[in-house]
From TrEMBL, chain A:
Keyword Transmembrane: yes
Organism: Kribbella sandramycini
The keyword Transmembrane helix is assigned to this record: yes
Keywords noted in UniProt: Membrane, Transmembrane, Transmembrane helix
Name of the protein in question: Energy-coupling factor transport system permease protein
Membrane topology value: Multi-pass membrane protein
Any one Pfam family match given in the protein's UniProt record, by short name: CbiQ
Cellular component terms per the entry's GO annotation: plasma membrane
Transmembrane segments: 15-47, 59-79, 123-139, 232-253, 259-278, 299-317, 337-357
Coarse class of the protein's main subcellular location: membrane
Lineage top rank: taxon: Bacteria
InterPro entries: ABC/ECF_trnsptr_transmembrane (IPR003339)
Record localization: Membrane
UniProtKB/TrEMBL annotation, chain B:
Keyword Membrane found: yes
Protein source organism: Kribbella sandramycini
Compositionally biased spans, kind Polar residues: 198-208, 239-269, 276-288
Low complexity composition-biased segments: 209-233, 313-331
Name the UniProt record assigns to this protein: ABC transporter substrate-binding protein
């Protein structure tokens, strides 16, 4: 049992499942208290279980991006949201618009209701984004590519490159900032931005070229001994299956889409994609150096996130009122027992999962 | 008449106390966070007046719950009606309680008088268990359709959004819940748009058959509505069945059946929610006409028959006190005052569940900050 607690980095997919479960939970509610609870759970677990790797330190950039989203939604409501609700906070001079722009109102009375509406909506999106950021902070994006099944290498490498863009940019920003501080640079504002932006862009280009060279030398993109027809069939199956999965996942996540686009679509997509993967994986053979294992701790982390999502799903059919608190009349956002407990279950990995390993080899490339 | 309005208010004031007790007990037991949903459906008596507008000055607002059940509301927004007086202003000034979607704000009206309630099943075609969360645009098969009329004129489907249309002085603003209707069969508000004292022969009669949209003679114009995003996906061949009296079939079996998945809606199974399933709601004492009584509005499927336990008995229903009751001449007689909606707006302090969640958030964030500092110190 002591071996369970030895520091190690979990399978990346485990953290992704945990984070996506919480993102799903966040998508089911606009209750700010519940969203704040989800956010604090995510932050607590990330702080406790992340490594010291650069992509993990970049988590605070996701937090500021989330704050930016909320602020933008609120500013939008101040500019356009006129005249909704009774609790007038302050009144800005209204800009009169011509008749053809009826319905658009610039400034004017700013009410608490409209600001809260914007903040609730923005907080929901920000929470989902920060959940994805947490997955990127907890799991090494490059190890995620390693654990993609061999049949999915081509699609998987594209996805991982896309997903890891932001962590890599964040890492670059942190690195360049540290270099500037070491040189004693105290510039602020637009000059500092220029001094950071150019090296970060250059870094990104360098990194892409290095990545391309590394992938090329490791045999990515090689067709091997496959015929053109077989590859086309495999590719078509995979793309169709993935599109089906995308639509199905969207249907499951968004409670307002028709139900036949949710479960059935997801099942069909998974079936087609599995066929494609089978036909691709039959002929592809790749070995893996130091594979990530799926053990009990991975099960705990992934399970906690999934349970949180399921509980929020259930409570949205039992008591939807508190998941979307009323703004008119303005009411305190109350929290039900069931969703709160569901979210708190996702806190367990902060203790029930071994801490991250921090040796140089892991934290490096 | 006044007695009837007092009763629901007293009920409501006693309710929160019980919830606090329930929540307190839950807290002591370590159960944590228990909330209670707020049923908020009442007109705001401080705004507007009940009934049709007495003069040319104001705008009469008509809310027809249609297939949602319940009775219609007629209220007057006193005005003055100027260039910037939109349909939204009329709703607000008439004291109608409205809720927009999270996405569009009140530019897209999602609930009127808290109907459809968040826990109310709207059996729209293909999604019989649908509940309106009011996050995004409501589906085309179940939304509040927006109408207008000049005094003595015909109801017209508004081609503009609620914030884009200026109300007509002395005219009518109508809202009718459109359930499984197409662009051609959108139900008009079933109250004739004519102020009682504006003409010698007031004809405030209500058609005894279903939605007037079924009557081709009344169909003034096609209700194609490019301005209303909720109206896009019209379903050909989907027609409204007329509702004779209070017959149940208004709602397909999907709403009442299926206790396996939907049972939670019909049973008060969550804590802190007082409801008495066996006890019929006090419809008569509450001002809602009894089924079968001569004063009943035609569609009037009382919500209690639809969702037992879905609503607190004694809680004011939409239209309480505003219920138009056809009098001897078919005129609409007004019952007087309304249940006070203002008690909803008086802040009663922060609910326990909100405070507990706030504490939990603070503890977690504080723990995160301490951990981060500790790790920072250890690293350096």
């Amino acid at each position: 049992m002591t071996a369970y607690w030895l520091p190690r980095n979990l399978h990346p997919a485990a953290w992704w499942l945990w984070a996506l479960g919480l993102a799903t939970a966040a998508s089911r509610t606009t209750n700010p208290m519940l969203l704040a609870l989800i956010l604090s759970v995510v932050i607590f677990v990330v702080i406790n279980r992340r490594s010291d790797a650069p992509w993990a330190v970049a988590f605070r950039l996701y937090l500021s991006l989330g704050a930016f989203i909320v602020v933008m939604r609120v500013v939008y409501r101040i500019i356009f949201g006129g005249g909704e609700g009774d609790q007038i906070l302050f009144t800005l001079p209204e800009i009169p618009l011509p008749a053809w722009a009826a319905g658009i109102r610039l400034f004017g009375q700013v009410t608490l209701e409209s600001l809260l509406g914007g903040a609730y909506d923005g907080l929901r999106l920000a929470t989902m984004l920060i959940c994805v950021g947490a997955a990127n902070a907890l799991a090494n994006p490059k190890r995620l590519l390693k654990s993609v099944p061999s049949a999915l290498y081509e699609a998987g490498s594209a996805v991982v490159v896309a997903v890891s863009v932001f962590p890599q940019l964040a890492e670059s920003v942190v690195r360049v900032g540290r270099a500037r501080r070491l040189r004693g640079s105290t510039e602020r504002g637009i000059r500092a931005f220029r001094a950071v932006a150019i090296p970060v862009l250059e870094d990104a280009l360098d990194r892409s070229l290095r990545l391309a060279a590394a992938m090329d030398s490791r045999g990515y993109g090689r067709s091997g001994a496959l015929t053109g027809g077989a590859r086309a069939v495999t590719g078509a199956l995979l793309v169709t299956g993935l599109i089906g999965i995308c639509v199905g996942v969207y249907g499951v996540l968004d409670g307002t889409t028709p139900r036949y686009l949710a479960g059935p679509m997801l099942a069909i997509g998974v079936a087609i994609a599995a066929t494609g993967m089978y036909s691709a994986g039959r002929r592809v053979h790749r070995t893996m150096y130091r594979p990530d294992h799926w053990r009990l701790a991975e099960l705990v982390a992934a399970g906690c996130g999934i349970v949180a999502a399921i509980v929020l799903f259930r409570s949205s059919s039992v008591d939807p009122a508190n998941l979307n608190p009323s703004l008119r009349p303005l009411a305190w956002p109350e929290v039900d027992l069931l969703p709160a407990v569901g979210v708190l279950i996702a806190l367990l990995p902060a203790w029930l999962v071994p801490p991250a390993a921090n040796d140089l080899e892991e934290a490096g490339r | 008449m006044n007695r009837r309005q007092v009763t629901p208010r007293r009920d409501r004031s006693s309710r929160p106390r019980r919830h606090w007790l329930v929540r307190g007990a839950a807290f002591v037991l370590g159960l944590g966070l228990v909330g209670a949903p707020l049923t908020a459906s009442a007109v705001d008596p401080s705004r507007g007046t009940p009934g049709f507008c007495p003069t040319e000055e104001g705008v009469t607002v008509v809310i027809d719950f249609g297939k949602l059940g319940g009775t219609a509301i007629v209220r007057c927004a006193p005005g003055p009606v100027g260039p910037g007086f939109t349909g939204h202003s009329a709703l607000v000034d008439a004291g109608i309680q409205l809720q927009g979607t999270r996405r569009w704000g009140e530019a897209f009206i999602c609930r009127l008088e808290n109907r459809p309630a968040p826990d109310e099943v709207i059996p729209i075609k293909g999604r019989e268990k649908y509940k309106e969360p009011c996050i995004d645009t409501p589906p085309a098969a179940g939304y509040w359709s927006y109408w207008w009329a000049a005094n003595g004129g015909q109801w017209q489907y508004s081609q503009w959004g609620v914030k884009n249309r200026n109300a007509i002085r002395g005219g009518f603003e109508g809202w009718s819940f459109s359930l499984n209707a197409t662009a051609e069969t959108n139900p008009k508000p079933r109250i004739t748009p004519r102020r009682p004292n504006s003409a010698p022969q007031p004809t405030n009669t209500i058609p005894t058959q279903g939605p007037s949209g079924n009557n081709p003679n009344e169909q003034q114009q096609p209700n194609n509505n490019p301005g209303n995003p909720g109206d896009q996906g019209s379903l050909p061949g989907d027609t409204i069945t007329t509702i004779p009296g209070n017959s149940r079939p208004t709602y397909p079996s999907g709403s009442s059946g299926g206790p396996t998945q939907n049972g939670a809606t019909n049973q008060p199974s969550w804590p802190g929610r007082p409801s008495t399933p066996g006890q019929p709601a006090p419809t008569s004492s509450n001002g809602v006409p009894q089924p079968g009584a001569p004063t009943t509005l035609p569609p009037g499927l009382p919500r209690d028959g639809l969702l037992p336990g879905g609503e607190q008995p004694g809680a004011p229903r939409p239209g309480d006190g505003d219920t138009p009751t056809p009098g001897s001449n078919g005129d609409i007689a007004w019952s007087g005052g309304e249940p006070s909606g203002s008690s909803q707006n008086v802040p009663k302090g922060v609910p326990v569940s909100t405070m507990l969640t706030g504490f939990a958030v603070l503890i977690l964030l504080g723990g995160a900050v301490i951990t981060a500092q500790y790790r920072q110190a250890r690293r350096s």
